[in-house]
Design goal:
The chain has helices at about 20-25, 30-50, 70-75, 85-95, 135-145, 160-170, 190-200, 215-225, and strands at about 55-60, 80-85, 100-105, 120-125, 145-155, 200-210, 235, 240-250. By secondary structure, the chain is α/β, with parallel strands linked by helices. It has one domain (about 10-250): 3-Layer(aba) Sandwich (Rossmann fold). The chain binds S-adenosylmethionine.
Length: about 250
Amino acid sequence: MERAKTDKVNNELYHALGERWYHAKDDPVALLRAEKKLLVPWAIEAIAKHNTNSSSKVLDVGCGAGFFSNPLSSIGHNVTAFDISKESLEIARQYDKTKRVNYLLADAYDFPFSDKTFDVVCAMDFLEHVDRPEVVISEISRVLRPNGIFFFSTFSQNWLAWLIVIKGVEWFVKNTPKNLHVLDLFIKPSKLQQILSTHNLTVEQILGIRPCFFTKAFFQMLLTKVVPDTFSFTFTKSLLIGYGGMAVKTNRL
Ligand SMILES: C[S@@+](CC[C@H](N)C(=O)[O-])C[C@H]1O[C@@H](n2cnc3c(N)ncnc32)[C@H](O)[C@@H]1O
């Protein structure tokens, strides 16, 4: 299968991470893991509030090594997950204790699923990795059932996000590759909301996400360029750096 080509962001780096997905601290992937400690419980609670059924049909788009899919499967959801990186999918499968996640090699520009298949779709830390997020969102909307929910997290497009998410990570985390992120692909919350609304997805919740600054772990990272296990993220009102949210598929045709 030919891999999708983006001429800017570096999506190749994920193929080579291997076990580092789960263990490296001298790598920005440690930040992705730390952020999931905030986002996974938030999404689990939101799904429970929204769906009466304790087992929802969940799709994880650009699932990487399964940081979202595996915990959702372990609490009983019926999870399908896909990524363009077959190497990352191998790691995701290894760490799936339930052995029930359906991990697939696929491209987010062309979902291999029928319309209205899923109760929940997640695209975590993903939309800033594709050149045409509107195409991916149109696919997400197509495969969501009416009243189904979409979880997203991404970065805002402004100088502060550039400074913290791009430059800060380059300066203060070892082994940060060139073009891990590019400002061009960051999305202003207002723009994302507009794309979602065009595709019948109504935003019900949107929250800022940022690292916990001025903690011991934060300063340890600045000094050593290694991300301690205790490094953490928090929700915040400001949508200026990272943000995440939940949208509901409306019944409009
Ligand atoms: C930053 S990682 C996020 C992984 C996961 N969602 C998480 O939050 O841990 C971005 C992922 O998007 C995948 N990706 C990039 N372009 C893709 C595409 N067109 N289709 C599917 N996956 C893609 C990469 O291989 C990588 O695993």
